[in-house]
Specification:
Elements lengths: L2 E4 L6 H10 L3 E3 L3 E3 L4 E4 L10 H13 L3 E3 L3 H8 L17 H13 L4 H11 L5 E3 L3 E4 L5 H7 L13 H5 L6 H11 L2 E3 L6 E2 L5 E2 L1 E3 L10 H4 L26 E4 L15 E3 L1 E2 L7 E7 L10 E5 L6
Parallel strand pairs: 1-4, 4-5, 7-12, 12-13
Antiparallel strand pairs: 1-15, 2-3, 6-7, 8-11, 9-10, 14-15, 15-16
Helix pairs in contact: 6-8
Bound molecules: manganese (II) ion.
């Protein structure tokens, strides 16, 4: 058994092609794809930020349609569909609101399809077929957070392969504060917890934050500072106050996820929970994959990655 799990790509198609080649996947004009022995699971967030978003989608989609890969929904694919899905609870508004910030974040994707309405429609249709999580008995994956309560809460809105059952998934999970909204946020954006009273910290960009991203996989975290998912160089900015309740921990089959903007050299920091998002959109980021071969504990030597700005193959 070989499953190649690939982290957040965010429109960096050249790095994707290099990584695929390292994994044994190459495309030639004459013969199409030559593939490795295994299969691929993409962890979502194909789009936004990077220079080659359309090409990234095309490559991943082709591998999926040929049966070589599965791609999961990331929060950016959800938002792309939500951007054109009307809210049922607030007429005239969209599930992904059209604030300046949200438009700016999504601008490059919209521009990539500016002269291709058909391609835009087709791409959004394809996004709506992407499963929210992957699970076989040996390994599992989700974009941000593995959480069985949230999975159960969404069950009636999903098909057997965990893909959205039509537009109702986007409408129901777009109702702010609903149980379905909460569940979708948990799986695709991760768990967050509010700091006590009006305590805040300033993030990397100087933005005031009243909530932390909660590390849902490590055990024995008792304070906000310990439990925050943040680069260690920034950790001291988080208040060292006790968490209101015990933080969750993960103990199950190997679980792969992206989303968390890890920095530095890819590494295994938990035997069963493996983040593969190493911030390819940042100047020193890398695009990261893990070659799963049936092991019950994650291995450092199964991580594989490519640096930024390498020549396309
Ligand atoms: Mn994400």
């Amino acid at each position: 058994m070989l499953i190649n799990f690939i982290g957040d790509i965010h429109g960096y198609a050249n790095e994707l092609k290099t990584l695929l080649a390292k994994l044994g996947y190459r495309k030639s004009l004459r013969r199409g794809w030559s593939t490795g022995d295994g299969t691929i699971v993409f962890l979502g967030d194909l789009i936004d930020r990077g220079p080659h978003q359309k090409q990234t989608v095309d490559i991943v989609r082709e591998l999926c349609e040929l049966g070589h890969a599965t791609c999961l929904t990331g929060n950016h694919e959800f938002n792309a569909v939500g951007f054109v899905t009307k809210r049922t609870d607030e007429p005239g508004k969209f599930v992904r609101s059209h604030t300046d910030n949200h438009i700016q974040q999504h601008q490059a994707f919209l521009e990539a399809f500016a002269n291709d309405a058909h391609g835009y429609r087709e791409t959004l249709d394809w996004f709506q077929t992407l499963p929210i999580w992957f699970d076989n008995s040996n390994a599992r994956a989700v974009h941000a957070c593995w959480n069985t309560v949230a999975q159960n809460d969404l069950a009636s809105l999903l098909n057997d392969d965990h893909s959205p059952r039509g537009r109702s998934f986007y409408e129901q999970t777009g109702i702010y504060g609903s149980r379905a909204w909460e569940a979708r946020e948990t799986l695709l954006n991760g768990l967050e917890v509010k700091l006590p009273n009006d305590v805040f910290f300033s993030d990397y960009y100087g933005v005031k934050r009243y909530r932390i991203r909660l590390n849902w996989w490590q055990s024995q975290q008792t304070t906000f500072q310990e439990a925050a998912v943040i680069d260690d160089s920034q950790r001291s900015t988080i208040p060292d106050l006790p968490l209101p309740e015990k933080s969750p921990t993960y103990d199950g089959p190997l679980c792969f996820f992206g989303h968390y903007w890890m920095r530095g050299t890819p590494r295994i920091s938990h035997p069963h929970a493996i983040c593969l998002d190493y911030s390819v959109a940042l100047h020193d980021g890398v695009l990261c994959a893990y070659q799963f071969k049936g092991e019950t504990k994650a291995r450092q030597d199964h991580l594989i990655w490519v640096n930024k700005s390498v020549t396309a193959v």
